[in-house]
User: Which sequence fits this backbone?
């Protein structure tokens, strides 16, 4: 009698642990309202080996898994609803009787893990590699058999290495792994390097030797590597900040250099360039977002440049030789321009969509390079090259350099200095306009945008020396890199202050900046 | 050519007289709707009741505050359609303090002494509130402050309809600790009083929960900061120590836009390092591509996605008033909704708009909130609120992942800070004290003590 019951119980238990039964449990958990149960359901389904696991979990990730009051699960597709467990279409299901199965972060983590293990056998090697990466981050010891199977079946060497690393990470979390296995796992993970390997090894630091010593040695080499990459990364950030400063300050360097005019409205030229980018994007519509930025650059040059020429002809022309009045007048002009923009566009920030090819990042060895900053660095280099070419190779550039070096002599040679002044101001403002287009990608477009960059622009021009574009380049890059190296230690606020103090001290020693223009007239 | 400017005594004197004359004529720029300066309108039954709206409509905080001005105008229009208050029409007086903190104080003084507003609804940043506090206490005005803040204040002239730390910050940290098993913390904020005080409270709270010093990283940035590259790289590095790391963000204003963009660009996913923000709601996310941000969190007492009939009705009336079905609603708007209704009830209870009777009548007033319950004004001038934690979705709305079953009473004086753990605020007679020390049984000097 007891034997019969025991046999029955054994049979029931055996049936209960078959994959089908596990999958049934998993579906029941997925249909429950608690986030914890949904997470467990995802984990169970991932391990169950059910053929519907991958489509159901993918649907859940995409927000297309729905549950009915009777706990039946459905997937929404473009052509209607399908039953989640069977995959057959369910035409008589009405949307208003269904509730979406919701996610929170722990559920998302479970989904990443489950998809990782399910996609290990996908046909596309790229997908397999991503899956192996996800398994590495999950470092779940229960996945070891799956990983062993995947490694045995893998032909691609790169993917197999990632799988081996994932296996090593899972092994280190297994409580019953042998010391030998652990040591070889530590070697593998140490060889992989990077911050995520460090994250796996750090909790094992306190283990007794030889595991503890191996972990410490591996972490030391990873840390050294990370430090080196960290320095290079900081240099990259400094260069990207410097390129932004360069774009903003280049125009100012030209106008200040040629005419000695302190233009406090320079920031507003930048702001107008940013608004030009906004208007061009709105005018072209959402389809052309990718190209609107490229079109906005010459438009901003023309608009800001044209405005610059007008300003020079109407306002600055009367104030030559009177720096205080120029300062006040251009300051007043900046307020007027800000208010005009505020009245036309409103005081709120205007959104400028970054084009698809400028979003995201890519990894180069240990570096993370964000695409938008990379594009801006390239753009700054391009603008500067164009500017230098204009100054070196064009007749207008020749005349501008002549006027910068010795105005009276240039006038005596027959150069029409008033028109040179106007075009110089236009060129400087045009460059500022192009800078504004670049800035619209990384900063908020508001009427106050110029205010944030005017002080920095003057700092760069004063530090780099007036009249020489190379001085501006080196000044901007130096200030950017110094700022970015200080920021992790001193914080953003103190870092800025420290840079300002350094510039002031530098000016005490070299009042004319890094690379001043020499010559009798220049020093007059 | 004209003569250059010379700065001698005669011209300075002339210049000075000119400036003084201009100032006396009150020729100040800015968008203001001023009523004619009618004296003492409270006694006269036919004149409208003036309601001041003190929100930044330009500058770094305009992204957050402009919509609060709009919701106040809607509430006032709706009340006027119902017949006004005490038989009189309500009139809105809108000023723009332009994210300029000293200008907040000037505009507050103008609203109280020139326009004689019966109540003012305004402020967002704590620094703006601290700037106007002395003005409201000196001129005995009433301010309804709708934004979550750091606590450590309990003024007789202010009604705090936003969350105190125990109604937002502490529950958010608890959620991360319990549900997401976070053990390492980055406290990132804008550099002013609210993030500094909140981080002081949170640091102390985390230490009581056993978090080590080395597992807490604190970082401050100026308003409008736009270059987040190295800070986010630092956060990623801090988060690679093998422990689950989260960022608690008290970043305010439009600096949030480049912050979230950089988070998305550097691939910081919510499943790796979740970011919970206290000052980012539907309004700040509008106009941002939130697909890379899905799963990052915010803690508030209301979300637009709350599924109640009251909320649906509110959203519908908002969309038809503002004539834009895409405009979002957010927590501070709900706080103004609650605060405005509480003020109406208090005035009706007191029978007058004079500040002293209204302040006394306001305690105990209960009005419905938009999440299906009732909110009450407690003796400490704070209201009861539910706590909601939401995750950002790809349409800029929030998916509510956690909700307190009932309402939480505000603790305006933090029990985690040594100087304030023995303080309570109670403005009912006979105590009538904002900072009463229960250990020494004494009230802070001046009766209206604040940190």
Assistant:
């Amino acid at each position: 009698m007891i034997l019969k019951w025991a046999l029955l119980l054994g049979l029931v238990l055996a049936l209960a642990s078959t994959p089908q039964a596990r999958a049934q449990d998993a579906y029941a958990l997925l249909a429950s309202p608690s986030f914890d149960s949904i997470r467990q359901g995802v984990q169970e389904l991932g391990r169950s080996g059910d053929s519907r696991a991958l489509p159901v979990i993918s649907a859940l990730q995409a927000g297309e898994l729905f549950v009915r009051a009777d706990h039946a699960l459905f997937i929404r597709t473009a052509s209607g609803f399908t039953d989640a467990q069977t995959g057959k279409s369910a035409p008589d299901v009405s949307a208003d009787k269904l509730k979406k199965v919701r996610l929170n972060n722990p559920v998302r983590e479970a989904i990443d893990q489950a998809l990782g293990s399910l996609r290990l056998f996908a046909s596309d090697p790229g997908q397999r590699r991503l899956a192996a990466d996800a398994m590495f981050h999950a470092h779940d010891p229960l996945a070891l058999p799956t990983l062993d199977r995947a490694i045995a079946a893998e032909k691609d060497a790169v993917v197999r290495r990632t799988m081996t690393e994932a296996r090593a990470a899972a092994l280190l979390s297994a409580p019953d792994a042998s010391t030998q296995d652990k040591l070889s796992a530590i070697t593998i993970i140490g060889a992989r390097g990077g911050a995520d390997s460090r994250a796996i090894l750090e909790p094992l630091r306190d283990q007794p030797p030889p595991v503890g010593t191996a972990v410490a040695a591996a972490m030391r080499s990873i840390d050294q590597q990370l430090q080196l990459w960290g320095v290079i990364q900081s240099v990259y950030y400094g260069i990207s900040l410097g390129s932004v400063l360069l774009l903003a300050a280049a125009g100012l360097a030209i106008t200040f250099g040629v005419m000695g005019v302190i233009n406090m409205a320079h920031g507003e030229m930048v702001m107008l360039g940013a608004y030009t980018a906004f208007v061009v994007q709105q005018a072209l519509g959402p389809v052309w977002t990718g190209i609107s930025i490229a079109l906005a650059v010459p438009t901003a040059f023309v608009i800001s440049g044209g405005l610059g020429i007008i300003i020079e002809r109407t306002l600055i022309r009367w104030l030559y030789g009177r720096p205080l009045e120029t300062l006040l007048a251009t300051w007043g002009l900046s307020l007027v321009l800000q208010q005009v923009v505020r009245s036309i566009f409103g005081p709120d920030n205007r959104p400028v969509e970054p084009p698809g090819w400028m979003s995201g990042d890519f990894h180069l060895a240990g570096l993370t390079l964000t695409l938008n900053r990379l594009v801006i660095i390239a753009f700054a280099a391009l603008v500067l090259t164009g500017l230098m070419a204009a100054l070196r190779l064009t007749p207008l550039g020749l005349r501008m350099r002549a006027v910068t070096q010795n105005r009276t002599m240039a006038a005596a040679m027959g150069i029409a200095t008033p028109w040179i002044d106007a075009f110089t101001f236009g060129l400087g403002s045009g460059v500022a306009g192009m800078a504004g287009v670049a800035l619209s990608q990384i900063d908020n477009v508001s009427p106050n945008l110029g205010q944030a960059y005017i002080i920095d622009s003057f700092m760069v021009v004063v530090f780099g020396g007036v009249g020489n574009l190379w001085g501006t380049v080196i000044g901007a890059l130096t200030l950017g890199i110094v700022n970015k190296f200080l920021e992790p230690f001193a914080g953003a606020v103190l870092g800025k202050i420290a840079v300002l103090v350094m510039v002031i001290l530098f000016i005490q020693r070299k009042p004319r900046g890094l690379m001043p223009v020499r010559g009798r007239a220049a020093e007059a | 050519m004209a003569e250059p400017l010379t700065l001698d005594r005669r011209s300075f004197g002339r210049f000075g007289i000119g400036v003084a004359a201009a100032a006396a004529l009150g020729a100040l720029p800015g968008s203001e709707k001023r009523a004619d300066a009618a004296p003492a309108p409270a006694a006269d039954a036919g004149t409208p009741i003036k309601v001041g709206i003190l929100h930044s409509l330009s500058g770094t905080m305009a992204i957050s505050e402009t919509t609060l001005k709009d919701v106040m105008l809607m509430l006032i229009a709706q009340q006027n359609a119902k017949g006004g208050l005490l038989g009189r029409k309500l009139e809105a007086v809108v000023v723009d303090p332009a994210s300029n903190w000293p200008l907040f104080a000037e505009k507050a003084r103008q609203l109280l002494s020139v326009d004689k507003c019966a109540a003012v609804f305004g402020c967002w940043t704590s620094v703006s509130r601290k700037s106007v506090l002395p003005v409201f206490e000196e001129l005995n005005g009433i301010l309804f402050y709708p934004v979550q803040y750091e606590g450590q204040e309990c003024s007789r002239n202010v009604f705090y309809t936003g969350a105190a730390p125990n109604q937002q910050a502490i529950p958010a940290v608890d959620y991360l600790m319990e549900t997401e098993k976070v053990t390492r913390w980055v406290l990132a904020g804008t550099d002013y009083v609210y993030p500094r005080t909140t981080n002081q409270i949170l640091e102390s709270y985390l230490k009581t929960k056993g978090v080590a010093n080395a597992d807490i990283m604190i970082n401050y940035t100026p308003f409008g900061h736009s270059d987040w590259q190295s800070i986010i790289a630092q956060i990623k590095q801090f988060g690679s120590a093998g422990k689950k790391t989260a960022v608690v963000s008290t970043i305010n204003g439009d600096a949030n836009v480049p912050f979230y963009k950089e988070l998305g660009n550097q691939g910081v996913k919510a499943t790796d390092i979740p970011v919970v923000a206290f000052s980012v709601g539907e309004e700040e996310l509008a106009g941002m591509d939130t697909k890379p941000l899905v799963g990052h969190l915010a803690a508030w007492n209301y979300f637009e996605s709350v599924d109640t009939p009251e909320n649906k009705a509110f959203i519908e009336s908002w969309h038809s008033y503002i004539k834009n079905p895409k405009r979002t609603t957010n927590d501070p708007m709900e706080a103004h909704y609650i605060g405005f209704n509480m003020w109406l009830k208090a005035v009706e209870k007191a029978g007058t708009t004079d500040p002293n009777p209204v302040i006394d009548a306001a305690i105990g007033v209960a009005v419905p909130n938009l999440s299906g319950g009732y909110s009450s004004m407690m003796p400490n001038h704070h209201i009861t609120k539910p706590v909601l934690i939401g995750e950002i979705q790809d349409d800029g709305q929030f998916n509510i992942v956690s909700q307190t079953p009932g309402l939480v009473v505000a603790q305006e004086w933090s029990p985690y800070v040594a100087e304030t753990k023995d303080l309570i605020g109670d403005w009912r007679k006979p105590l009538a004290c904002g900072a009463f020390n229960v250990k020494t049984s004494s009230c802070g000097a001046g009766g209206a003590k604040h940190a």
Summary: The mean pLDDT of chain A is 87.
